[in-house]
Amino acid sequence: MKNKNTFILTSYNIHKGMSPLNRQVKMQGIAQALETVGSDILCLQEVQGQNLKRNLQYNEYPDQSQHEWFGEFLHLQNSYGKNSEYDNGHHGNAVLSRFPLDPKHNVNITVNKLEQRGVLHCEVHPVGWDMPVVVLCAHLNLFEHDRIKQYQAISDYVRDEISPEQPLILAGDFNDWKKMSCDRLASSLGMTEAFKHCHGKLSATFPAKLPVLSLDRIYVRNLSIKRAWVHSGKPWSKLSDHLPISAELGLI
Q: Which stretches make up the Endonuclease/exonuclease/phosphatase domain (predicted)?
């Protein structure tokens, strides 16, 4: 049970609202499962802003953008950062919040033409807190040599744009499947990974049915970590190809 000085943040790659093998629309199931978690802040990756082809293909595929649809279902404010655009539509990252939400910037960290990637920068204002919390929702490349460039871009952005005193969260799908260097980015910025802090190791979140790879992380700075957990088993194993990860965070 969380208290009034803490909030729950969940990071989740929703696979564009489709089942792991793209055969079924899972929007309703994802929304209902997230509702049971009751997160105060959501960092979502692979959010479909528009997909005209799937609108025609599936009756249950919503006409409106997924960040707006989830926002209405869960009664959360929402912000979207478009990363990848194509003939039928576009997708990107989204931040949804129970608290007042102030969208700031969508940082382009694309380093090759095949993978358009970004970091969505928002500020949230927890009730009763003197200072807003900076939330960076990220989705990084599949290859290590690309991610190293992206770590540098994120590091430069944080140092240039965000005060060292401000509460900061960097959450998302880092695709750091070999666990080689993502922690180095956090270390250079003085950030702590929430699950590792609580359990002594990173959490396996992919593939959802039988998770073996630790791709999804929640890094924090100037915040206390009360607990952290992965949402495993049903229904999560059938909703997306990733499992969501959550942390309860508070003032230091």
A: 11-242
Over residues 219-247, the pLDDT tens digits come to: 999 999 999 999 999 999 999 999 999 99
Residue 82 belongs to a domain: yes
* 143 belongs to a structural domain: yes
Q: What is the dihedral of CA 28, 32, 33, 37, to 10 degrees?
A: 150
Residue 213 falls inside a structural domain: yes
- Whether the CB-CB separation of 114 and 121 falls below 8 Å is answered with no
Q: What's the CATH number where 99 sits?
A: 3.60.10.10
- Picking from 1, 22, 223, the residue whose alpha carbon sits closest to that of residue 133 is 223
What tens digit of pLDDT does each residue of 40-81 get? 999 999 999 888 788 878 878 788 999 999 999 999 999 999
Q: How far apart are CA 188 and CA 155, in angstroms?
A: 8
